[in-house]
């Protein structure tokens, strides 16, 4: 088989890829999370993640996005917390290395406000969520900011004695701050 | 004859550490504290506990390789009492921190230990993977807390004996474990 034919065969085998037309500037983008432990708020970030985005502001309903997050890359600046997070009680990265957010069909809410309805999967548990975000496009640059409020136990994050809000609040937040350049499709 | 400076330093580091551990242990289990304060007391108790364990291991190693100064002239029964009290102290000073380490390792919280917020300290092997952690934890917790009371009693005996030698018998035994001052010679 010729190399070109092999590529075609591989392309046919793999699921239809998202026609990503924005390339995310990882150095300027930030994927963070927040929580409260023993009454003290803390902030964290994911160091490794990827985002594929297909979005035309003129046709938000045709937009698609897929964000894949490497959960082992979560850091909060506290050695104890950062050592606990990958364990079976929390993200359980051995069994579930990635969290995935897949959004299909964005909704324009007027002005620079949009919503991205999709499915968020953590620890193998997929839930329908809506990510509200604001979008600013200038030329071929775009920046999007959004905040998602979650209940961590809905995804099994915090097992056993941690499944109550006694020590770590059940309410957590995810902060998305994307800077992307239009790459054309 | 006085103890070697290394032995003196280790003795007082361990003494201060154990005193702090007893106070912290009582405070964190008996006081109605805010969650964050309580949590921090537990973390500090773990840090000091491991520090004491390491210091005791060094102390035992030093003791095994260095002859301590001989006891003054004492009735044979008192010599035997001193030797058994010291033996009991060493045993408890090893068993109690080890049981504390086991307690942390088997805890259903599976909370990593970070010494003084800086150095990640591992769990003991096997314990984190036990099937019935709460039941084992309850047993280890009982052992740890009860032995702490036994140690408190033995320390009081040890200190009372040292004070008796110093103030009543005046044989200079306490000065042998004090730094920075010339050894007090026996009066008799």
Question: Which key terms come to mind for this protein?
Answer:
heterodimer; A: 185 residues; mainly beta; Lipocalin; 2 helices; 12 strands; B: 188 residues; mainly alpha; Fumarate Reductase Cytochrome B subunit; two-stranded antiparallel sheet; 4 helices; 2 strands
Structure write-up:
The complex is a heterodimer of chains A (185) and B (188). The two termini of chain A are 28 Å apart. Chain A has helices spanning 3-13, 79-84, and strands at 22-24, 30-37, 40-46, 49-54, 64-70, 74-75, 98-104, 107-108, 113-122, 125-138, 141-151, 171-182. In chain A, strands 1, 2, 3, 4, 5, 6, 7, 8, 9, 10, 11 and 12 form a twelve-stranded antiparallel sheet that branches. The model of chain A has no long low-confidence stretch (mean pLDDT 91). Chain A is mainly β. By secondary structure, chain B is mainly alpha-helical. Chain B has a single domain (5-177), classed as Transmembrane di-heme cytochromes, Chain C (Fumarate Reductase Cytochrome B subunit). In chain B, 66% of the residues lie in helices and 3% in strands. Chain B contains four helices and two strands. In chain B, strands 1-2 form a two-stranded antiparallel sheet. Chain B is elongated and about 55 Å long. Chain B starts with a helix and ends in a 19-residue tail after the last helix. In chain B, 20% of the residues are buried. The model of chain B has no long low-confidence stretch (mean pLDDT 93). The A-B interface holds A 38-40, 78-80, 83-84, 87-89, 160-162, 166-167 and B 34-36, 39, 43, 108-114, 117-118, 120.
Give a brief description.
Chain A has 185 residues and is mainly beta. In chain A, 9% of the residues lie in helices and 48% in strands. In chain B, strand 1 (113-115) and strand 2 (119-121) form a beta hairpin.
Structural class of chain A: mainly beta
Helix and strand sequence of chain B: HHHEEH
**How many discrete structural domains of chain B?**
1
Largest interface: A-B, 16 and 15 residues
Q: Give the termini distance of chain A in whole angstroms.
A: 28 Å
Number of strands of chain B: 2
Q: In which range does the helix fraction of chain A lie? A: under 10%
Counting DSSP H or I runs of 4 or more residues, the number of helices of chain A is 2
Would you list the SSEs of chain A in sequence order as H and E? HEEEEEEHEEEEEE
Overall mean pLDDT of chain A:
91
Question: Which strand-content bin applies to the residues of chain B?
Answer: under 5%
Low-confidence stretches of chain A: none
Name the CATH superfamily classification of chain A: Lipid/polyisoprenoid-binding, YceI-like
CATH class of chain A: Mainly Beta
Q: What top-tier CATH class of chain B fits best?
A: Mainly Alpha
What structural class should be given to the helix and strand makeup of chain B? mainly alpha
Query: Rounded to an integer, what's the Rg of chain A over CA atoms?
Result: 18 Å
């Amino acid at each position: 088989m010729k190399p070109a034919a092999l590529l075609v065969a591989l392309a046919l085998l793999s699921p239809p890829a998202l026609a990503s037309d924005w390339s995310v500037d990882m150095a300027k983008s930030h994927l963070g999370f927040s929580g409260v432990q023993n009454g003290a708020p803390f902030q964290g970030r994911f160091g490794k993640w990827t985002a594929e985005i297909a979005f035309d502001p003129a046709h938000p309903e045709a937009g698609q996005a897929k964000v894949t997050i490497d959960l082992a890359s979560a850091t909060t600046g506290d050695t104890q917390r950062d050592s606990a997070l990958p364990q079976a009680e929390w993200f359980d990265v051995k069994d579930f290395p990635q969290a995935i957010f897949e959004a299909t069909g964005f909704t324009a809410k007027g002005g620079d406000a949009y919503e991205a309805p999709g499915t968020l999967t953590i620890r193998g548990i997929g839930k329908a969520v809506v990510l509200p975000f604001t979008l600013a496009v200038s030329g071929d640059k775009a920046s999007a900011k959004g905040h998602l409020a979650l209940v961590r136990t809905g995804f099994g994050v915090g097992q056993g004695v941690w499944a109550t809000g006694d020590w770590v609040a059940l309410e957590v937040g995810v902060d998305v701050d994307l800077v992307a350049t239009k790459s054309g499709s | 004859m006085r103890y070697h400076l290394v032995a003196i330093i280790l003795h007082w580091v361990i003494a201060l550490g154990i005193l702090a551990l007893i106070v912290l242990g009582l405070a964190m289990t008996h006081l109605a504290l805010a969650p964050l304060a309580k949590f921090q007391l537990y973390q500090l108790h773990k840090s000091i506990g491991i520090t004491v364990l390491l210091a005791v291991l060094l102390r035992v190693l030093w003791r095994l390789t260095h002859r301590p100064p001989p006891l003054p002239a004492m009735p044979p029964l008192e010599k035997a009492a001193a030797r058994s009290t010291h033996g009991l102290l060493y045993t408890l000073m090893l068993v109690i921190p080890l049981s504390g380490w086991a307690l942390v390792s088997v805890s259903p919280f599976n909370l990593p230990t970070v010494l003084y917020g800086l150095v990640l300290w591992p769990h003991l092997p096997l314990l984190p993977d036990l099937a019935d952690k709460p039941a084992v934890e309850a047993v280890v917790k009982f052992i740890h807390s009860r032995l702490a009371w036994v140690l408190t009693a033995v320390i009081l005996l040890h200190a009372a004996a040292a004070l008796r030698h110093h103030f009543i018998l005046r044989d200079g035994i306490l000065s042998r474990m004090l730094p920075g001052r010339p050894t007090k010679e026996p009066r008799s």
